[in-house]
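Assemble and predict.
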Amino acid sequence: MPELMKTPLNAAHRALNAKMVDFGGWDMPVQYPAGIIAEHEAVRTKAGLFDVSHMGEIRVQGPGALALVEHLTPNAVSKLAIGQVHYTAFLYENGTFVDDLLVYREGEQEFLLVVNAGNSDKDFAWVQKHAPAYDCTVVNESPITGQIALQGPLSVQILQPLTKTPLDPIGYYFFTHGEVAGVKCLISRTGYTGEDGFEIYCAAGDAGRIWNAVMEAGKPQGLMPAGLGCRNTLRLECKMALYGHEIDDGIHALEAGLGWIVKLDKGEFIGREALLAAKSAPAPRKLVGFKTLEKRDIARDHMPVVQDGKPIGLVTSAAPSPTCGINLGLAYVPTELAKTGGRIQIEIRGRAVDAEIIPTPFYKRQK
Amino acid sequence: MFPADLKYTKDHEWLKPAGDGTALVGITHYAQDALGDVVFVDLPEAGASFAQGEEFGTVESVKTVSELSMPSAGEVLDVNATLADHPEVVNEDPYGKGWMVKIKLTGDLAGLLDAKAYEALVSAESH
């Protein structure tokens, strides 16, 4: 097995006695000694600090940059103001997912694309493949970039003393450049937890300084280091998609409930024809949220949805929810069954158990 | 981490003979640590009998699930009722308050590991 890749904060995680796992080839903390539930609750009620330096960053720059990113993604890039971010995807011609990503508009002709760690190489190759027709440069900045996510209701109050940049005026899904703990960085009001918070991008070598400064400033207020374990339960409660689960190269954007990132009227983009066709015919399956009815019935990722013993769908992500206190999950089911209040059955270790379709997101923060 | 008075399985259960033909069964410190926060323990009814190695329940954590296999043939005399409302006790005290079932031994303890052998196994698994 090849050696695992390490983020610039690897030693910090080990010093905190994190439990490290192989996450798509990266040596990452799944949890710290406090455990997933305590970390999850810290993010919901106070704050948590995540190392997400494994994420990929691709910078596209030049007179043709806007046209290239418009071609590669279904959301309306031209609508982005400088300093604004949006969620979008790379799609294949058939409308299924290469990956999902964030697009940051750094300038009129400059974009930062933030992609999943496990897809980073594939995504970079995908962008490079389409780039020659456009007058722009494409640079993979993943190896030189650190990323730290501070998430939770106390994020502003923890981070503000460490930066001269006024944080309150930064709107949700906007960003600015500034300094944190004396280190130059991009401060983005985004996240993958459903809470208020910031994703901070910096030079890889500076990540440790930011991590340590934020940990020290936040500790007295209840900030905890938070691992990938709670990152998953947090995003699941908010029905945020995870590549390889809710979305992949076998699911198209409309089935995934991501029609809101698909702007069919914006002009040409890869996957548009397929999604236009899909829109005129009702999707045969739909992503729904469910809860199992018995405490002992805990569904897990990739378990089948069954009817009369036959598989009719698939659980994409499922777990006991620390915030909601129920066993919940997301699943693709035939569209005719995808009604709130409807019953489905999940096969758990050979046993078909009852589940109820419930509204999503399962959790929404009070603003 | 490896109490000397217990017998262990390769699947990370422990068995504690009481000396009167009964024994307590639970999962090891290593097992609870690997699982993380335990949220549910599914245990059999008293009176159920199991062969050595047979699955007798499951333990669910936030991130995963693990089957429990019986360290030695036995009949379940009692289950730990505390775990129904406080499954986290398995994390907090795996060798004490986190026991899972009390059994009447109906077979021998052949094939079980002593503390030293189990420690060696865990040490090999963690590297």
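The two ends of chain A are 46 Å apart (CA to CA).
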